[in-house]
Amino acid sequence: MIVLVLLSFTSASTQNNISMERTDQLATLYERSGGTETPEYKDGIAYFKLLAEQFNTIEMQNWGPTDSGEPLSLVLYSHDGIFDIQKNKALGRAVLLINNGIHPGEPDGIDASMLLLRGLAEGKLLQSVNKDVLIAVLPYYNIGGAINRNSYSRTNQNGPKAYGFRGNGRNYDLNRDFIKCDTRNARSFAEIFHHLDPDLFLDTHVSNGADYQYVMTLVYSQKDKLGEPLKTFQEELLRPFLFDYMKNVDDEMTPYVNIWGSKHRHPTPDKGIEQFPDYPRYSTGYTALFNTIGFMTETHMLKPYAQRVESTLNFMRAFVTAASTYKTELIKVRTEAKQTVSTKKTFPIKWEADLSKSSMLDFKGFNSGYKKSQISGADRLYYDNDTPFKKEIPYYDSFKDAVVVDKPEFYIIPQAWHTIVDLFKINNIVMEPLAEDTILEVQVYHIDSYKSYTQPYEGHFPHYDIELRSSIEKVAFRKGDFMVPVNQYGNRYIIETLEPQAEDSFFKWNFFDMILQRKEGYSSYVFEDLAVEIFESNPEIKSAFESRLASDEEFKSNPRAQLHFIYEQSQHAESAYKRYPIYRLME
């Protein structure tokens, strides 16, 4: 039985205990500037180092490389100075991971984390709950973007005075890279994530999009993708607690106002909103693959920077308090979820919003309208901040399965596909190399058709509308090829990367484009004579050819197509063409 715990709350200003007048060495630039500035990367990192030097409850570690050339820094808070992850887990503490600066033009979480960690270490914040958690903070995830400062690229945003850039040192959007791992940042993040195995995850952002009254909006793991028992825990305990907490500290929030790609195609939220589809390319979608509930705070771009930082700090307090309040249930449901996902037989790999289901959401917005643009003369959208409203709107937060697959007993990855093997190793996926050459009967996918983006997207031309057919074949495997058992807590990662039709599969992200191009061909003047011999020795090919001639007038008048048809049916056509090189060994 799930029981909602009710706590008493005090106001945000009382709890935060943040003074813009603080002037000692632990005062942040945010405070010294009156809530208008965020530090440069080198100064921000120096501040986190200072906290680690001043307090034995804070430790700073350097982890793997990033595209910037700088290591990825991790800051840990433990009330008793125990920073070993396994010791903390053995003590029954919840492990929390907070990620900041993935988009350094949205630095709210960086400054809020400084205030959070200092407040914890000084004994001024969350003293009643700090014994129940280990808090891990990535102060700057996108270091290259943080170094690339300016005051103009966040066109819609109200402060701070200067900030970093969305793209990293190679202009990647790191919040699209958690599956494909094109960057060193993403690979180092995966190592940290699996080292911590966090019970909850938070990624801090600033929104773009509609105008409304709230400072804070929240993205959270899509319940139907999470599955049980995490779904019930999130929906009945965790999410209500977080929303109630924020409301009780006078910082009411709403679910993320997703108008991007909405099936409603409404430019304003007053007609309803759909829950953000957190695909595995995004941080929270990635963490959910490993049974970690994820949150993205999205403060409102038009609100002053000081309000946004304070609201982010409020949510961090709610986040830590929730983990403490429900730590026993949280750890229990994660353990159960790992067991469930390791034994379940079928897996959805694509979802879509279920528009037949919605809940009603009390929404505080601003009235909107259209007026003539002074630039184009066409109608343009505007929001009237002088006419706020509160009304119920439909919130579409249910998703349904679009594609479901039966899991195999094993996937088999030939060792030649080392890029896949490397990513599986980084993500703690158990693999068993074959001890000797062997022949196995496996299910083989063949790519019948697909479409591709016509413009580059994050360094790729992703595929979509992928159609497959399958066959059962005997395939020769070599000693050292990898058997991947589909009986582990990372099953969702395994399946959602290796199944070609999955939303963020490796196939979709062009990892296997080599098989989509023929490597050999023929000269027509040579193959003409060979085609006659093929007909003589393969009457079934000749019969298929004649049937095609009789039914397809265009084919009948195209000698080149006729010759190619014979080539495709013959043993001369390479078998690797459009033959997916990851195999399924069924039970």
CATH fold name of the largest domain = Aminopeptidase
CATH H-level homologous superfamily name of the largest domain = Zn peptidases
Could you name the CATH class of the largest domain?
Alpha Beta
CATH architecture of the largest domain: 3-Layer(aba) Sandwich
Work out the radius of gyration: 27 Å
List low-pLDDT spans: 1-15
What average pLDDT do the residues reach?
A: 95
Strand content of the residues, in percent? Answer: 15-25%
Strand order of the largest sheet: 1-2-4-3-5-9-6-7
Looking at this protein, list some descriptive labels.
8-stranded mixed β-sheet, 4-stranded antiparallel β-sheet, Aminopeptidase, 18 helices, alpha/beta
How does this structure look, described?
- This protein has 587 residues and is α/β, with parallel strands linked by helices.
- It folds into 4 domains: 12-343, Aminopeptidase (3-Layer(aba) Sandwich), CATH 3.40.630; 359-400, no CATH class; 408-518 and 577-585, no CATH class; 524-569, no CATH class.
- Helix content is 32%, strand content 24%.
- The protein has 18 helices and 19 strands.
- It has helices at 12-16, 29-32, 41-54, 85-90, 108-121, 143-147, 184-196, 223-226, 230-248, 283-288, 305-325, 327-343, 418-426, 491-498, 524-537, 539-551, 553-556, 559-569; strands at residues 58-65, 71-77, 94-99, 133-138, 200-206, 216-220, 253-255, 273-274, 293-299, 346-353, 359-372, 379-396, 399-406, 410-413, 432-433, 438-452, 463-477, 482-485, 583-585.
- It has an 8-stranded mixed β-sheet. A 4-stranded antiparallel β-sheet has the order 15-18-14-19, with no helix packed on it.
- Helix 5 (108-121) links the parallel strand 3 and strand 4.
- Helix 16 (539-551) runs antiparallel to helix 18.
- The longest helix has 21 residues, at 305-325.
